[in-house]
Amino acid sequence: MHEPAFWYRPPSLSSRLLMPLAAAYGAVATRRLAREGIDAGIPVLCVGNYHVGGAGKTPAVLALADLLREAGEAPVVLSRGYGGKLRGPVKVDPARHAAADVGDEPLMMAERVAVVIARDRVDGAALARAQGASVILMDDGFQNPAIVKDLSLIVIDGDRGIGNGAVFPAGPLRAPLPPQLARTDALMIIGKGAAADPVAAAIAAGGGLVLRGHLTPTEASVAALRGKRVLAFAGIGDPQRFFRTLRASGIEVVAGKAFADHHCFSERELEALTAQAGRHALTLVTTEKDFVRLRGTAAAQHIVPFAVTLNFDEETKLLRFATDRLFRARAKKRR
Question: How far apart, in whole angstroms, are the C-alpha atoms of residue 257 and residue 265?
């Protein structure tokens, strides 16, 4: 879905009219958050969002997986597999699966780390353990109470924050903010913006860890587009952030086309994009996440995937915090 513009503006008439629905949705979400979960038997670290839409969660999962492996852990990512037709549990195999099977984000991550998808997260956790996981790294699922989480790290965009602060559909929040804050162990702010500062202050006041990170394009991606004029397109939570990243990397974005998150590009849409690029001598560029959905299409050979990685400002502090939580979780499970 496309995010309504009023979600990221001061309270408006549209938002106020939706408040009764938001109150009902929020009440259900709050009760759900309070449910007891099942112990997965090994530590569970969850990377989530307070709101719908993108904030850099997938790069955060990959970066945290790298940190955990450097510490000697064997992380397995557990995802719901949004956008895929398989219910799971199944281990994602990039050589065998397509985005239509397992979802775009799991398929992209599976190039770098073991990934299990499952609609039922308890079943997914069991398969992750069977795959030799020493720790389960949940991609999303912060609001899902099925499994006990030993550390919940929330990713938030520094420029957008939590928007108007209202619960869906009046705003972007998946649940009222107070019960979500109470369950947050660490907050990762992506970028230099100040929109998330009030949330960061609340987390810090409650004893939680607050860190910042920055999305950095890979050198290969920048080199592939150096000196070229591009037509950029993206079907992610915040396409404008992708366009800004391209421009900040010195790439001339002549035109940008925004689509809904997880958008399934039709042949007609791809033909139109290719034709527009051809008319104006532009290079087509999209995100890694979008590109995995385009594999096997005729247009893919004309499109450059633009890869980014998340760099933590205080990597050592995050690793120390995570390993401490792992130690506590294992000590508790042994009792």
Answer: 12
